[in-house]
Amino acid sequence: MADTQKSHSFPSLEKASKPELLRALESSLGTSFSSESILPTPNSLILVISGPSGVGKDAVIKRLRQVRENLHFVVTATSRPMRPGEGYPKGKSGNSWGKGDIVEGRYSRAETLRRILGDSGLFIFLVAESELALVERLIERKTESKEELLVRIATAREEVKLAKRFDYVVVNAQGKLEEAVNLVGSIIDAEKARVRQRTPFI
Ligand SMILES: Nc1ncnc2c1ncn2[C@@H]1O[C@H](COP(=O)(O)OP(=O)(O)OP(=O)(O)O)[C@@H](O)[C@H]1O
């Protein structure tokens, strides 16, 4: 009976205004519609970008920062030892991350970070399209001696074997930096939309 009465008082779908229809629907349901976001605020994301020396980690991160304002820091993990002063800033609580999505610092191996962070971090492995392309890029950079080049190439061969320990592999192909950056951006977006979010801690 009550239902019949309500349907009698319901305004015409054709004639009523949107606000009238919203009010009528709310009154039929007995609850009002919330304008609050349906999605919870995504967790902060710790992004670790690793890959062989010369693959373009710095270049990708620099560009990523330009195109995505909300990224504060990035961890890059290289074969190079960590420089003094590079490390994880602690969040306000002392053992959690602050607001920043990403933390910068150079670690000897992404493996160490994986041990610390487990699945709470997002690990991306950057590769060139081929070993030849990587070596060409290293040569063109002109920052390494012959000995350093040989060490970096040998290390790169070892590091590529570790790619399976990462969550994603992104190809930074010659002349296609923008594509690599876009793919990293898409991965970040996908992570933010995950139902089961990673929960960063340290
Ligand atoms: N997609 C690309 N196409 C062509 N050149 C690139 C690309 N990405 C990076 N480079 C160039 O390759 C060189 C190496 O890049 P970068 O210094 O960013 O590497 P890296 O991975 O940070 O190396 P390292 O671990 O030794 O610091 C630089 O000269 C950079 O400008």
UniProtKB/TrEMBL annotation:
The keyword Protein transport does not apply. Signal peptide: none annotated. Belongs to the guanylate kinase family. GO terms for cellular component: cytosol. Residues 44-86 form the Guanylate kinase-like domain. It comes from the Eukaryota. PROSITE patterns: GUANYLATE_KINASE_2. This is Guanylate kinase 3. One of its GO terms (molecular function) is GMP kinase activity.
